[in-house]
Amino acid sequence: MALLAWPQRPVMTVTYRDGIRIELSDGTRIVCDADSPDGEVNVLSHAHGDHWPEGETTAVCSPLTADLATVRRDTPLHRTTDERVELCPAGHVAGSRSALVTDPDGTRYLYTGDVCTRPRFYLDGFDPPSADVLIVEATYGEPDYVFPDHAALAEEIRTWLAETTEPVILFGYALGRAQKLQLLARAADRDRVLASDAVRRVNDAIETHRDVTFDAEPFGSDTDLTTGDALVLPMTSGRIDWVDRLAGETGAIKAGFSGWAVQAAFKFRGDYDVTFPLSDHCDFEELLSLVEAVDPDRIYTQHGSAASLATHLTAAGYDATALRQHQTSLGDF
User: Fold this and answer.
1) Which CATH superfamily includes the segment(s) 150-276?
2) CA distances (Å), 137 to each of 94, 173, 288, in order?
3) 18 vs 15, 21, 53, 312, 329, CA distance in Å?
4) Looking at residue 239, what is its pLDDT?
């Protein structure tokens, strides 16, 4: 009696190992946002530290991303291009790009990287192209994460900055929200806008490529923080002892800016006096709208609430899978 053969589990053409890997029909490996990129083609979506490798490397990316990555780590990032990879503005931070990869068999893969469809300040929102396969971030891939209207939120922040007489310390990622906070502080007519060296290095690179000026003054250990000042610091410095001492000595108000501020716990985790849900990502409803605009045959979710978003998309009738590291087939899900 012949043994029954079990059906083969389908091998995934998109996997999450070190970064996101897309295997094309001719065997070419496209690797996106890896710590140690080893693809025939390597793609870097943007210059946040959790998306590009340590050490000198070469990647398909925007010219601004190459410059930002180089100045942020003092290690060259060499930019290249590939005819199979079309870069599209991702709306996340300055220089960020999604990657539209065309397989020789005609299949179109869209890797979003981090993405935002809302136009903000000097950034256009992501305009989703159509694709057969969508690999989408899911940082805020749960229904609880819905952000307020951006224009209304920006005006709320500007008003708070204008009406607050104490010095303020504003925490946001050195690349991204820090630049927007400087613009809002200027719009609020704060007496001085100061920034750390890490933020000002990013400012300089962006100003070289974009029609925007931040005009932040340098802040150092010998700088006095006084009434009317706004100091912009990287989010990672929020728990450093000298920042707490500075706030205590000057009576400065500490403000945190992040999409996580939708939840009250963010204020207490960061030891902030006030928080605002200013984000450079899509919220849950915007992610659903992005998926609808792309209209893919298959969706892979990754990062953040990948499982939750995949569940919601599946319930809506999509073929959606949450990626996890070292997953090689659908049966591993």
Assistant:
1) Metallo-hydrolase/oxidoreductase (3.40.50.10710)
2) 18, 18, 11
3) 9, 8, 10, 26, 16
4) 64
Query: Domain ranges in the chain?
Result: 14-144+281-332, 150-276
Q: What is the pLDDT of residues 225-276, one digit of tens each?
A: 999 999 999 988 756 788 999 999 999 999 999 999 999 999 999 999 999 9
29-32 and 19-23 beta bridge pairing: antiparallel
| Model confidence pTM above 0.85 | yes
Instruction: Write out the E strands in the chain.
Output: 14-17, 19-23, 29-32, 41-43, 57-60, 77-80, 85-89, 97-102, 108-111, 133-138, 168-172, 192-195, 217-218, 229-234, 253-257, 274-276, 298-304, 320-322
- Distance CA(277)–CA(311), nearest Å, equals 25
